[in-house]
Specification:
By secondary structure, the protein is mainly α. It has one domain. 79% of the residues lie in helices and 0% in strands. α1 crosses α3 and α3 crosses α6. The longest helix is centred in the N-terminal third of the chain and has 30 residues. The protein starts with a helix and ends with a helix.
């Protein structure tokens, strides 16, 4: 198998693992704030997905697995959405945003 094909397979496997982990975390959050989740816009949900995906890329898997997504409050979810909006608008660098989200989640370990 050519090296290019192996590299592409590796990137795709990484992407699939990231997407699966993020979707699992989002399902936990969705269940823990069920009523409030229904009031979120699709844009808000995309901000959450993006920030969790960025976080998953930057941290090690052991740390990710220690996060207790079910402990997040509506206020915490609002912070994640706001942070995602700031990154999207260019008001915050991605690295600073990921560090902020990591601190938030670390406070619930």
């Amino acid at each position: 198998m050519p090296d290019v094909a192996r590299g592409e397979i590796g990137r795709r496997v990484f992407q699939l693992k990231k997407e699966k982990s993020v979707e699992e975390a989002m399902a936990i959050i969705r269940n823990s704030i069920a009523q409030e989740w229904r009031s979120l816009s699709e844009e808000d949900i995309q901000y959450i997905r993006r920030m969790l995906g960025d976080l998953w890329i930057y941290i090690d898997r052991t740390t990710w697995e220690q996060y207790s997504f079910s402990m997040l409050t509506c206020h915490d979810v609002g912070i994640i959405i706001r942070t995602g909006r700031f990154v999207s608008d260019g008001r915050m660098q991605e690295k600073a945003a990921v560090e902020e989200i990591a601190r938030l989640l670390s406070s619930h370990v």
